[in-house]
Write a structure and sequence with these properties.
- The structure is a single chain.
- By secondary structure, the protein is of the alpha+beta class.
- Strand 11 and strand 12 form a beta hairpin.
- Helix 5 packs across helix 6 and helix 6 runs antiparallel to helix 9.
Length: 392
């Protein structure tokens, strides 16, 4: 079906979206939202009913964070309405890697960020592709990291700063999309503490869906193809026990536990193909973890050291790595971003389908693994201070 190609110039996403199409989306959304109403004594009923009419005027669909809200169900329904591209085949295990064949990823919008030796401090450039240029129908809703009641039609002025949640036109998997924090501020792909907290609260809001949902982040020179601040999320259930990514079952060595919250723990992943760190049980300590990660990220930025992040199953992984370049491309084709760094290699064409675990391990050791000195510096920052009790 032909869709009018509107873009996100304001207020186009608010008032000029095809009303009939959005009506179908709101009906699906309200199934989840009315569940919330039934448990809240009917709060926000007027706004919920208005949303059935398509969020008229300068009102948009807003969804709040919080582990007890129906955000995940809403996301699934809206994504199912929008998704059009084929998603490829289920992943197969090859040693400590999972290989997933997904040719639609090879049709990504053509960008050049990953293929150039740019500084990690490269500013936003409005002349390049950015999220203001996407069609309006790719936007699912606005996300609020502050817990509020479910999803409802909301005046746009109440959603400032704006955090867009969008479908991914070239999905990593089913329910693959983009979270663009502070999208109107035209921030570059430089992850600051406030944006990191938005990403963490979004990831925590998806936890009730089970461990299949994950949220990732590529810094510049680490697989980011768009220099407009964003996370990506996707649903993954791989061939390993529990459907986990390889990094989730990798051997971990306990480094430290928080002095007052002993269930909040920091681990080293020295033996993983891309060594790095994990912090477990993060959902109740988002402020502590975002502050901790921000200090590590500041250390990496100061050294022009790229990195990838992953939020999965109430834990976060951070992996410093070598910059993406022509030599780091897997078989000269695939730029390794967060899925590949954490073990899911997305084969975008048939030349990658026969990749072996040994070939990948050799490539990662030579072209992706970060220098030992960088890892030691990051570890020192993670466990410094009197709030962490080291284990050795």
């Amino acid at each position: 079906m032909h869709r009018p190609r509107q873009t996100l110039g304001y207020p186009s996403v608010l008032g000029r979206v095809n009303a009939g199409r959005w009506l179908l989306m709101w009906v699906a959304t309200m199934v989840a939202c009315f569940i919330a109403i039934g448990t809240s004594g009917g709060k926000n009923t007027d706004a919920m009913q208005e949303s059935l009419l398509g969020c008229r005027g300068k009102r948009v669909l807003g969804c709040g964070g919080g582990s007890n809200l129906p955000l995940g169900k809403t996301l699934k329904k809206l994504w199912d309405e929008q998704a059009v591209d084929p998603l490829g085949e289920l992943a197969v295990a090859r040693g400590t890697f999972d290989i997933a064949f997904n040719p639609s990823r090879g049709k990504k919008r053509r960008t050049t960020i990953w293929n150039t030796q740019q500084s990690m401090q490269t500013p936003f450039n409005s002349s390049l592709f950015n999220f203001h240029k996407i069609p309006a129908y790719e936007v699912l809703f606005y996300f609020s990291p502050v817990p509020w009641h479910g999803c409802s039609c909301t005046p746009v002025e109440n959603l400032d700063p704006a955090h867009f949640v969008m479908t991914n036109k070239f999905p990593l998997s089913r329910y693959s999309g983009i979270l663009a924090p502070y999208v109107r501020e035209n921030r570059s792909q430089h992850l600051t503490s406030d944006a990191l907290e938005v990403g963490m609260r979004f990831a925590a809001s998806l936890l009730p869906l089970g461990r299949d949902f994950r949220v990732g982040f590529n810094s510049l020179a680490a697989g980011a193809s768009v220099n407009h601040l964003h996370f990506q999320f996707w649903s993954y259930h791989g061939p390993r026990e529990g459907g986990v990514l390889p990094v989730e079952e990798a051997e971990k060595v306990l480094l430290a536990a928080h002095k007052y919250h002993p269930d909040l723990r920091i681990y080293s992943l020295k033996k993983f193909q891309v060594p790095g760190f994990a912090i477990r049980n993060i959902s109740f300590y988002i402020d502590i973890v975002s502050d901790l990660l921000s200090r590590v990220i500041a250390y990496l930025y100061a050294r022009e050291q790229p990195y990838n992040l992953l939020f999965a199953s109430n834990q976060v992984f951070i992996m410093p790595r070598q910059p993406t370049s022509q030599t780091s491309l897997i078989r000269g084709v695939l730029p390794p971003g967060f899925p590949e760094i954490f073990g899911e290699v997305i084969a975008t064409d048939t030349s990658l389908r026969d990749l072996s675990g040994s070939e990948l391990s050799e490539h990662y050791e030579k072209y992706i693994k970060a220098p030992e000195g960088v890892l030691q510096g990051a570890e020192s920052i993670l466990v410094e201070g009197d709030m962490w009790e080291r284990t050795g």
